[in-house]
Amino acid sequence: MATKGIVKGVVGNLVTIEADGPVAQNEICYITVAGVPLMSEVIKVNGKNAYAQVFESTRGMRIGDPVTFEGHMLEVTLGPGMLSKNYDGLQNDLDKMDGVFLSRGSYTYALDEERRWDFKPLASEGERVTVGDYLGEVIENFQPIKIMVPFTFEGLYTLKSIRPEGAYTVREEIAVLVDDEGKEHAVTMEQKWPVKRPITCYVDKPRPYKLLETGVRMLDTMNPIVEGGTGFIPGPFGTGKTVLQHAISKQAAADIVIIAACGERANEVVEVFKEFPELKDPNTGRPLMERTIIIANTSNMPVAAREASVYTAMTIAEYYRSMGLRVLLMADSTSRWAQALREMSNRLEELPGPDAFPMDLSAIVANFYARAGFVHLKNGKTGSVTFIGTVSPAGGNLKEPVTENTKKVARCFYALEQERADRKRYPAVNPIDSYSKYLEYPEFQAYVAERIGSGWIEKVAEMKQRLIQGKEISEQINILGDDGVPLEYHVTFWKSELIDFVLCQQDAFDEVDCNCPIERQEYMADKVMDICRMEFDFEGFVEVSDFFKELINALRQMNYTLFQSEDFRAAEEKVNALVSQRAKN
């Protein structure tokens, strides 16, 4: 018999419920307000009292309102039909909602109940199967979607029957499995899974090592991220987080892209809805939206739904990873998620940590980031979830708790800087403060040596060292003036500017420069570093600046022309001529 309860207290979205039976942590319940059931999640149990966070507005809720407990955790529905969808944080299909504003208490089915999918069986009757094994597949937006043994199953099963090739809906029975006790289990194309629990139907989860090529030089060359890796992008407003996220989403070597707009302002979420359907996949030329899922949860929605949205996105990502696909998950912004945690923690009157965030914020962030990763599946295939979150620290303060705790767990740190944005140096990622810990992994070093060439890691380290030297000399020139430092200081400074302008900066709105393949990155990096290692003859610091400005312009023309085209070669000949004029014999 389902547990019932009544409302005993309401503080914002936190409701105290007196239950008449057993209640579990993270269990879902519905509170009926004026005949409308509102979905809620139990976040604390104390004796007969259960404390639930409501995913809707609690306006009009009264003491004594009835509550029904569902006996399961917050779940998502997984199956074909999710690609190209726009969901909210609870996986309601926003396109099925009526009106401009979402009405309270209205929930929609996440998949398409009516659509018939062309099912192709991959397993045979009599086979022994276990959780995550492929029973069949359907094609959705040119992407093969595997129909798997549901993740909730345990142990080995015998496949008693499976439907022949044909068209079926997601709720039709497509297979029957028999367990070792002889009990039969019907399987459909859809399945449900609780969002707070990771999907772990894989054999091994090794340290990731394959370079995730994004076409962005600041990432691939300077601070690479890997398939199944984790990274985050902190930065104040107006520094280009959204443009950088769009560039990574469009160009990264991923099969599925999931965008979690977690607690962003409504106008920014509208931009995502407007811009993503217009983006083209550079690999196929088809709309990028065909392999994208958007989970929108604006800042004016209840804080509980904001917290749920990131878990919903991660669970969907793990589902596709179990098919052997490469998934890219972008969350914007995890600061709003952390603020939702803080708000509920404060209402529960828990002991506050720094800046009133929960004491266990670091553990919550670490557990979430740990769900990303590169896995070996039982059938020998590999899959990955690469997670990149953005952080919006107030006033650009990178010492605040969310940024600090995320730095402990994310392997890549892309520090967006207001000063670089003001100087129009985009992407405004600080090349000195940013880092990638994957550069230290022996597995990654071996992969890069094979993929790009030996000595690449050392070359990247040399670039960063030259950028540091350039920054130090720039500060000295600002204090002492141009005449106050030796001539070789000016040369060193301008060599660092050469690296910055030609390799670190990139035009996201240029058809050619927006996407730079790794072969081109290697070629340009070699070109720039060969020049940086040369000795030049100059009379004074004016000659130094004039020469390097002209050289930078010539090299940037190479960036704006098709690789190895006639225009590219002509720009390169101009660069070679400029260098030979000043190079020491």
Automatic annotation (TrEMBL):
Residues in coiled coil: none
Protein family: Belongs to the ATPase alpha/beta chains family.
Record's keyword terms, sorted: ATP synthesis, ATP-binding, Hydrogen ion transport, Ion transport, Nucleotide-binding, Translocase, Transport
Domain ATPsynthase alpha/beta subunit barrel-sandwich: 109-196
Gene that encodes it: atpA
Residues of the ATPase F1/V1/A1 complex alpha/beta subunit N-terminal domain: 9-71
Keyword Transferase: no
Domain ATPase F1/V1/A1 complex alpha/beta subunit nucleotide-binding: 215-436
EC number(s) stated in the UniProt entry for this protein: 7.1.2.2
Pfam families, per the entry: ATP-synt_ab (PF00006), ATP-synt_ab_N (PF02874), ATP-synt_ab_Xtn (PF16886)
Species: Porphyromonas catoniae ATCC 51270
Key word Translocase present: yes
PANTHER family per UniProt: H(+)-TRANSPORTING TWO-SECTOR ATPASE (PTHR43607:SF1), V-TYPE PROTON ATPASE CATALYTIC SUBUNIT A (PTHR43607)
Enzyme category, top tier: translocase
Role noted for this protein: Produces ATP from ADP in the presence of a proton gradient across the membrane. The V-type alpha chain is a catalytic subunit.
Name the record gives this protein: V-type ATP synthase alpha chain
Catalytic activity reported: ATP + H2O + 4 H(+)(in) = ADP + phosphate + 5 H(+)(out)
Alphabetical GO biological process terms: proton motive force-driven plasma membrane ATP synthesis
NCBIfam families documented for this protein: PRK04192.1 (NF003220)
Sequence positions that bind ATP: G235, P236, F237, G238, T239, G240, K241, T242
Gene Ontology MF terms: ATP binding; proton-transporting ATP synthase activity, rotational mechanism; proton-transporting ATPase activity, rotational mechanism
